[in-house]
Amino acid sequence: MAEKDKTPKKPDNPKIDDLYMNTEDGSTEAMTTNQGLKINDDQNSLLAGERGPTLMEDFHFREKMTHFDHERIPERIVHARGAGAHGYFESYGDLSQYTKAGFLSEKGKRTPVFTRFSTVAGFKGSSDLARDVRGFAVKFYTEEGNYDLVGNNMPVFFIQDAMKFPDLIHAVKPEQHNEIPQAASAHDTFWDFISLMPESMHMIMWAMSDRALPRSYSMMEGFGVHTFRFVNERNESFFVKFHWKPLAGTHSVTWDEAQKISGQDPDFHRRDLWNAIENGNYPEWELGVQIVPEEDEHKFDFDLLDATKIIPEELVPVKLIGKMVLDTNPTNFFAETEQIAFHPGHLVPGIDFTNDPLLQGRLFSYTDTQLSRLGGPNFNEIPINRPISPMHNNQRGGLMRQTINKGQTSYHPNNLGGGCPFQAKMSDGGFVSHHEKIDGHKIRKRSSSFMDHFSQAKLFFESQTKIEQEHIISALRFELGKVESEDIRERMVGMLTYIDGDLAKEVAEGLGINPITKPKEPLNHSFPADADLKDYQPTKVSRSVEKSPALSLMARPGKGIKGRMIAVLATDGVDADSLGHYKSALKKEGAEAKIISSHAGSIADSNGDAIKVDHSLLTTSSVLFDAVFVPGGSKSIKTLHKNPDAIRFVDEAYKHFKVITINGDAEKLWDMTYASKNANPKGVLFDQDASAFIEAVSKHRVWERDDATRIPV
Ligand code: HDD
Question: What mean pLDDT is predicted for residues 139-150?
Answer without folding.
Answer: 98
